Amino acid sequence: MPHPQHHRTLGFLSCAIACAFWGSGFFFGKIALTELQVGHMVLYRFLFGTLALSPFLFTHDSKLNAKEWRILLLSAFLGIPFQFLVQFKGLSLTTVSHASLMIGTMPVILAIGAAIFAHERMDRTGWIAIAASTCGAALIALSSRHAVGNHASLTGDLLVVLSLVIALFWILLNKHLLVRHSAVVVTTRVVATGTLMLAAIVIPTEGWPPIARLSPKVWAALIISGIFCTALTTLAWNWGISKVPASQAGVLINMEPLVGSLLGIFVLGETLGPSAWIGASLILAAAVTLTTHSTTKVKAPMAL
Predict the structure, then answer these.
(1) What count of other Cβ atoms lies within 10 Å of the Cβ of residue 89?
(2) Contact 229, 44 (CB under 8 A)
(3) CB atoms within 10 A of CB 296
(4) Does residue 170 contact residue 83 with C-beta atoms inside 8 Å?
(5) What one-character-per-residue DSSP string does the chain give?
(6) 180 versus 11: which is more confidently predicted?
(7) CB distance 52 to 169 below 8 Å
(8) Are 91 and 167 in contact (CB under 8 A)?
(9) Mean pLDDT, residues 77-90
(10) Residues with Cβ < 8 Å from 269, sequence gap 6 or more?
(11) CA dist 169 → 2, 47, 74, 273, 284 (Å)
(12) Residue 82: pLDDT above 90?
């Protein structure tokens, strides 16, 4: 039988791989947004993601009870149509670098969520880290007003942060389901159900997504983001957090702003102002401090 430490190491590795690929999601999304509306781009991404996961729908029986189906439906709505429509609307109004760096607030948001919903008591180091990260996010958002030629905006940055708050509840709901069900079952059902909800919102409001007029570059970006940035990443993340605490895995989310910002700078030619770099440093330092040096006491299990 594998040692628990072996499972823990593999869990962190799985989360790290997921976050690295998630970090490229903004890059490929920005490419697709050159020819698609936000809703159509997100819908195509999840259609390809669902297609990649579809074989598991027939090989893994869910055995979810009525309460778990209600939790899953809520998770699917929050995690797919709600989160991603808000997030990529924000991306359409800002830059890949700014959007990716705002993801650096997620470990702190996750820690706060765990404190509220899991009744954890955070120490002084944790609260200092939260304050530093909040200042960092403000520096990045405010620097977008002065970014030259980047087409960044405060509204876009704040929409990305709002999507992270939505993602918090998606993570906690999935974590609850993963207690009794495998990552494959949870991932396939959430993605497939969320994609149906997304189609029910996008098609009536924006019409059927275009097919013929899309360039090969956009099709490639959609397929890659669907398979690697959606299907495989969600499966890897859910498997990882089934082996390690979500709050500890949260520090690995910082691979997203690192990968996304590097792609934005070196491939798309974007630039970041001095205050944005200072803000990014504060966010990353706060997240690492919070998840490695801060301690919490759990008073009661998470109630849903």
Answers:
(1) 19
(2) no
(3) 18
(4) yes
(5) ---HHHHHHHHHHHHHHHHHHHTTHHHHHHHHTTTS-HHHHHHHHHHHHHHHHHHHHHHS-----HHHHHHHHHHHHIIIIIHHHHHHHHHHHS-HHHHHHHGGGHHHHHHHHHHHHS-EEE-HHHHHHHHHHHHHHHHHHHHTTT-SSS---HHHHHHHHHHHHHHHHHHHHHHHHTTTS-HHHHHHHHHHHHHHHHHHHHHHHH-SPP-TT--HHHHHHHHHHHIIIIIHHHHHHHHHHTTS-HHHHGGGGGHHHHHHHHHHHHTS-----HHHHHHHHHHHHHHHHHHHT--EEE-S----
(6) 180
(7) no
(8) no
(9) 92
(10) none
(11) 31, 23, 9, 32, 22
(12) yes
Which amino acid, 71? I
Instruction: Report pLDDT digits (tens) over 259-283.
Output: 766 677 777 677 767 887 888 788 7
**Amino acid present at 155:** T
Cα(264)–Cα(268) distance, integer angstroms: 5
For the question of whether the overall pTM of this predicted structure is more than 0.85, the answer is: no
